[in-house]
Amino acid sequence: MQHVDLYYDGSWAGLLTTIFEIFEFKIVPLSLRSTGERQQGMFQTEREVFTQQDKADRVMHGLIAKVGKKGYAELWHTYLSELPEAALLVVRVATYYFHEEKNVRLNFAQDHILQMKKIVKSVSRERHRMKAFTRFQLLADGLYVALIEPDFNVLPLVQQHFQDRYADQRWLIFDVKRRYGLLYDGQSTSEVTMDHTATMAHATLIDLHDAQEELYADLWKRYFKSVNIKERRNMKLHLQHVPRRYWRYLHEKSFGMEI
Amino acid sequence: MGERIKEKLEILADAAKYDVSCSSSGSNRKNKEKGLGNTGAGICHTYTEDGRCVSLLKILLTNHCIYDCAYCVSRKSNDIKRAAFTVQEVVDLTINFYRRNYIEGLFLSSGIFKNADYTMERLVLIAKKLRQEHNFNGYIHLKTIPAASPELIHEAGLYADRLSINLEIPTDSGLKLLAPEKNREDMIQPMTYLKDQLIKTKEEKKIFKSTPHFAPAGQSTQLIIGATGETDKQIITAANYFYRKFNMKRVYYSGYVPISYDSRLPAIGTEVPTARENRLYQSDWLMRFYGFQANEIVNDTHPLLDLDIDPKLSWALRNMDRFPIDINKDDYQLILRVPGIGVGSAQKIIAARRFGPLNLDHLKKIGVAINRAKYFIVCKGFMQIYADKRSDIIKSYILHSSKSKYLVTGNQQLQLF
C-alpha cells in the first residue's frame, strides 16, 4: 500500500485510468488533481497517471457490469461538475463499487454515495436548464447560434437533445466560459473550439442577424410580458426558477447586458 | 405587418393567460424524417414574474366571443380590444419561436365566433398545417370547443398531443349563475367522446403498432377557485370525479383573478386565493401519487382544507392511531403517508434500507423533513416519544418549528415586534 498525491491530465479517460492504477499498484490516494495545478518540485509521495485508453475502457466496462449504465453515467456527471472535490469523489465511489459484492449504487446511507448524488442532482439541474434557457439567434446565412455559460460543463449532456429536436436546421451552441461549442451541420455534430484571441459575443452576432431576427426576439419579449398576471406577482418564486446569472442570455430578461 | 402582429400577440396572449395549464410532458412524439421538433421533455423555457412556467406559446386564435360568461375576460359585454390571428400567423409564430428554442410547442384556444364548429375547424386547420406542411413534431395542445361535432374532435385528436375543455365552474348552480347560456352537457359530451377514443386507441395500439396517434398526452380540464363560494370538498370531489370518470391526465385549479365589477363575483382588488390553490394542488398530488382517497382529504366533517398546514399533515393529525410507521419495516405505501416524506424520499428509504437499518441522521441526509416526520415514525435508535401527545399539541409544535409561507396564524404575528 502506498499513500500518494495523484495527478492526472484532467480528462475522463485519465480519471478512469487513475482508477485502474489504484487497483494495479495498490495506491491509496491522498489527493487527486489535474497536472495543470501541479506545484514546482516532485515529492516522494507524488505520482502522475498517464492516460491509457485500454485501461480506461476496462474500467468503463467493469463499472457498467457492476452498477449499470446509470451508475456509470452518475460518475461521468460528477466529473463534468468540475468541482475541486469531484475527481477524488469519483475515485472513492468507484473503489467502493468494486470492493462491494452487491450493487451498492442505491445505498443512500453511505456518505460518498450521498455526496455524489447531490452533485449529480446539481449537474442534472444545470443540464435541464441549458435545454430550457438556450436561445438561438438566426443568422443571415441560416445558422442558428446560441451562447451559453453553464455553471458545469453540461454541453456534452445536451448534445443528443438538440440533435434530435433540431434535425432540420444548422445550429451552433457555444460555451463562452469554456470556449468550445457544438456545431450541427444538418448531418452530424462536431466539437468546435476557439483560440484565445477570437471573441464570441452578442455584439459580433448582431451584425450577422437574419432580417427577421429582431422581429421574433421582440415578439417573444412582448409575449413574455403579456402572459404575466400582475395580481399574482411573486418575484421570489420567479428568481428561484430563473436565477439572475442566466439573464444575460435571455431575451425576456436582460439580454446582451453586462451584469 | 410587424406592428400589427405585435399588437395582436399582446392582446391574444393576455387573453389566454388565465388558462393555467402549460404542461408539455406526457407525450412521446418523435422527430420523424428529419423534421422539426419532438416532445417528451416537458421543459419550462422561462417563468413569468408570477412564477408560472412558460413552456408553450399560449394564445387565443381570437378573443371575439358570442358568449357572455361573467368570469371570463373575453366575455361579449366586456369593453376590450379585440383581435384575431390568421391561420398563417399562428403557424409562423409557432415555427419561429420553436426554432429559437423559446417554446415546446403551441397551446391554442379561442373565443367562440359564429358557432362551435366554425371555431373548432380553424383550430384543427392550424394543427394540421403544422403537422403536415411543416413536419412539426413539437407539442400541440388544442382547446375543445363545447358542442363541437365529434368528427372535428376526432380530427383534432389526430394532430394534437393534448385536448382540453375547461369546466371552469365546479358546481352546476355556479355555472347557471355565471354562464347561463352555457350548458354543462355540451362540455361533458366531448370529454366522454375523448375518453372513449383514448381507450380505443390504446387497445388498438396493442395490436397494431402503426395505429395513428390520438392525443397521446390525453385530456385535461380546469376549475376556477373562489369565484362562486364553493367548498374545497366540492372542488376535490369534482376533480376526483373527472379523474375517475374521464381518465383526465390533469385537473388544474386556477385561483380566480377578479376582472369584473359584476356583483355576482368577488370585487376587483380581492386577493387571488393562491394559498388555497396551493393546498388544492397538494391534495391533487395526494390523490394521484400518494394513494389517498378524496374523502380522506375532505369529507362532511372536514369540508375545508386547513390553510396553515398541508393536507397530508392534516390527515395524519386526524388519524394518529395509524402511526407510528416503522421506517425500516413498513411498506412503501405506508411510508408515503408520513408527513415530511415525499415520493423521492420514500423511494430512497426503500432502496437504502436493503443495505442496513436507517437512523434519524440517514433520513435527514436523504431529504426527509424531520421536524414534521419525527412525530409519526420509529427508526433505528429512535423511539416514538411523542406518541402520547394530542394532535393539537403536535400541530402547534410543528407550526412553531417551521416557516410556512402561507402561515397566517401562530408565530408569524410575532415578527411584527
Automatic annotation (TrEMBL), chain A:
Superkingdom classification of source: Bacteria
Sequence ranges assigned to domain DUF4130 in this UniProt record: 86-252
Pfam families reported in the protein's UniProt record: DUF4130 (PF13566)
Protein name per the record: Putative DNA metabolism protein
UniProtKB/TrEMBL annotation, chain B:
Taxonomic superkingdom: Bacteria
Record keywords: Iron, Iron-sulfur, Metal-binding, S-adenosyl-L-methionine
Classification via InterPro entries: Aldolase_TIM, DNA_rSAM_put, Endo/Exo/Phosphatase_dom_1, rSAM, rSAM_sf, RuvA_2-like
GO molecular function annotation: catalytic activity; iron-sulfur cluster binding; metal ion binding
Residue span, Radical SAM core domain: 60-200
Cofactor(s) recorded in Swiss-Prot or TrEMBL: [4Fe-4S] cluster
Protein name (database record): Putative DNA modification/repair radical SAM protein
